[in-house]
Structure formats: C-alpha cells, structure tokens
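Form 7-S
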Amino acid sequence: MITLRLDGRPTIDATATADLTITIADREPVALHDADGSVAAVLRALRRPLTWQQLRDQLALDAERGDALIRRLLVTGVITLGCADEHGEVATARIHSRRADLRPDVEPVVGGSVQLSPYALLRRSGDQAVVESARDGTVVHLHRPELAAVAAALCAPATPETAARLAPGGPQLLRLLAAVGLVDAPGPQPARPPHAAWTHTRSRNGLVDPRLAAPADLDEPPGGPAADTDIPLPVPDLAALRRTDPPLADVMESRRSVRRFGRAPLALPQLGELLYRVARIQQRMEPDPAAGRLYAHTLRPVPSAGALHELDHYLTVRACHGLAPGVYRYLPDRHALAVVTRDTVPLVRMINAAYLAINRESVPQVLISLAARFDRPTRKYGDLAHSLTLRNAGVVLQSVYLSATAMGLGACAVGTGDAADFAEATGLDPLEVSAVGEIVIGSLPGQDE
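Output:
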C-alpha cells in the first residue's frame, strides 16, 4: 500500500499574508500560500500516513483540486510517497518536479511484463541504495539493501510476480516504482541518451527542483603572502588603455578565431596585460546582510554566478619572451604566476592536444585552461552548479577573445580538452578541480616581420 506522509518533522509557521512557512531540517524554508486553509488541513491530516484516496476523501475537495494540492506539496518536498509491509518501511519516494510522472492508482499488470525505465539510475546515497529518475529527479530511497535486487532484476523485462519475489517488500517497492514512472511496460531505448536528459533537466529550475540546503561558508580565502617562486606580472596602465583601445563596436566586429600565429612569441607584458584585463581581483567585498551580501566575495572584470569565481586560470606556456616554458597558475589577488610544473612531458601533451584541436594550423604559444573548483558553486546552487560553471567559462572565453582582439593578439577557443592531461600536469583530482574550457593565444602573423 502506497501512502502519503510528512517528510520528517516540519516546523510550520503562519504569516500575516495567509502564507505558511514550512521548515525541514537542513533545507531552505518553503513558503506556501494558504488562503483557504487547505494546505494546513493536509498537514494536519498527514500526522499519520494516508493513502492518496484516503487523503482525497478527508480534504472535502473535488478530485482535480485535491490532486493538484497533493502534487504541489509533493513537489515542494513537504510530503513524500512511501510504502511499508509487516516488517516496517520498504521505500520512500521524494518528488522533485511538477512534471513528475505520478500514477498513484497504477497496479502492475498481473501476468504481463514490466521493465525499469531507461531513465532510472540505481546508486548509493549515504548508506542507502536509491533509484533516481534522470528525467524528473524523483528519488526512491530503498530502506533495505536487498531491495536493490528487485530494481536490478527489472533491467530486463520480467513479470511483476518474478521481480517481487526477489526480496521481502518486493511487491510494495514494485508498486511504488510504477506509481512514480520508474517501472512501466517494456519499451525501446530512447534516442537521446539518458545522461543527456539528466544534464538538461538539472541545467535550469523548473524541470527538477534543486531543493537546496542552506548555503555553507562561501567566504573567499584570504590572499596569502607571495611565495619566493611566484612570478610578478607587469601591471598595465589602465588610463592609457582607455585612451588607446579601439572602440568596443570595432572589437566586436573584428573578432575572429585565429589558428595561425606569428613566428615571434608573446612577451611577458602582453600576457600580464591580458590576465589583468580579464581575471584579476579588483575588490574584495566583506559580508553585509543589510546590503544583501551574505558571504564574502570578490569583484573582477568578468561576472560569475553568485560572484563565486570558481574558475582558476592555468597557463601552459610553450613560448613567451621573459617566461620559461611550463605550467603556471594565475594568482588573481596579487597579479602573479605560481609555478605548477616545468616538466616538459605534460606541457607537450597539453600543447599537442590544443594543436590538434585547432586543425594543426599552428603550434600554440600559450594555452589558457579554465579550471573549475566544483565544490564552490555546488554549495550554493546544488544541481544547477555545473551548468552555471559552463556558462561562466563561456563568459571568460569571450572576454579573452575581446581583450586579445583589442590588444592585437590572436586567440582561438579549443572545442575539446583532455581532462586527464590537465590532471596529470597539475596533480589535481579531476572530480574536484578540472579544466572545463580552454583557449590558445599568441602573436598575429606579420607582427614579427
């Protein structure tokens, strides 16, 4: 039997505007408008688990309006779907999308075949197994490890009776998976890969509710003292650049991807000016709740979602006057470079990968890799973080393009990048910090003639 129940022990506070503020531990509060008191009535009724039909009957609302209210509360995470047997709880389903495929009255056809949805993912969450939907974010928590066998057995078509016998609680789990659209009649594999749907549904609000935790500490780390090995970069004269730079309209019109570079390499002052234009820290902003600043952040020449600036600039330098070949990290707080490695093996690999990506027209002089510290935006934006990081990378790439064009340099974004090469060059764990965008820069042909 599938029942509706409150998720944990929510705290409910009424406001003067006919709203209810519902707080569940470790989550942002949920505000729900409740002019007619129907939300409060549902919450009172669910002090004990009820079936969908039992709750419909108690609400004294027509079926359509009652179902809409129940779905609304499921999507906000205030209530969940669950099932139990004589031994206790079997599974709990948490709904994360108003477009979730909910069929509370469905019953698997006796004698027919059923199969796990191609959008279903069986994985570990904490110390539990869960079945999660890549399509709408529904997560079914299995309260007994042996129930994972029921989900796994449904990768191939099977009768409900066969699958249900694999573990105690199997019949109840099967009904719950069917009720949330994770088990259905056998069908073809979708043309679009499920992981592509997974990425898309989590790239914007609406298709999957991120249901965020309250933001953790997001303060920027303080700038440390310069190390002996740090290489200070020349600081350009911004006042002079304002007088001599071409107009933005001209820069936009003349920007092109340059794949053939000049014989003369870049000079260190040019590299420093490019990084100063695009990536330096202009100002540190301390937390000020009265001004809407809940955490410390920095201002830079390019925008970043939440002002988090999770992208670090790593430079793989093959040829630059005044700078030895090697891999460097830009230090935006003090406009300097830190040496990562001068080992020629990773340097050659990364430059060669970029050379192949730009159609082998010219060996890049400098490759800039934008490396994301993935945990930083995730602590604020949850599932949306990766899509925001990719957008941030696009903003930086365009900024490099425009700055290079204004400076009379060539630039070309690299459509592919080798994450393994970057990890080996930097020693960073690619699941924690990894390059998400690259661009090569160099002198223009004819500048050395």
